[in-house]
Amino acid sequence: MIPKELYEIHASICQCLANPKRLEIINTLRDNELSATEIAEKMGISGANASQHLAIMRNKGILKSRREGVSIYYSLANPKVITACDIMREVLFEYLNEKQLLTKNVKL
Questions:
Q1: Which residue, 77, 62, 66, 70, is CA-closest to 18?
Q2: In the 8-state DSSP scheme, what is residue 74?
Q3: Could you tell me the residue ranges of all domains in the chain?
């Protein structure tokens, strides 16, 4: 039996990830650690906007950070986050392919 509190924590993590910019941050950090400035530049967003998303993700335990001089570097707290995102992307592609097949067979 899974405690109800665990469902609430799970939903909270999923809610944090239900943002396109945060998913892009995860993908950007897929293979390496980057500074907040590097993340903002790669994504084409302001440093302030990147910092807001990074702080939320760090507070949820999705990212970890370390300070080096004036820069803060971010990386994934657990590489399984990438696996989970990749699986959800596969589900999305399968869904879209199925929808496309269904609409191809419809004659108007």
A1: 62
A2: E
A3: 4-77
Residue 105 has pLDDT above 90, yes or no: no
Q: What does the alpha-carbon distance between residue 33 and residue 29 come to, in Å, rounded to a whole number? A: 6
Indicate the pTM of the whole model.
0.86
CATH hierarchy code of domain 4-77: 1.10.10.10
Q: Where are the beta strands (DSSP E) in the chain?
A: 34-35, 63-68, 71-76
How would residue 102 be classed by pLDDT, with cut points 50, 70 and 90?
A: confident
Name the CA dihedral angle for 35, 39, 41, 45, rounded to a multiple of 10 degrees. -130
Residue with tokens 């950090």: 29
Task: Assess contact for 64 and 74: CB atoms under 8 A.
Answer: yes
Q: 10 Å Cβ neighbour count for 57?
A: 25
Answer for the pair 7, 17: CB distance below 8 angstroms, yes or no.
Answer: no
Q: pLDDT at position 53, please? A: 98
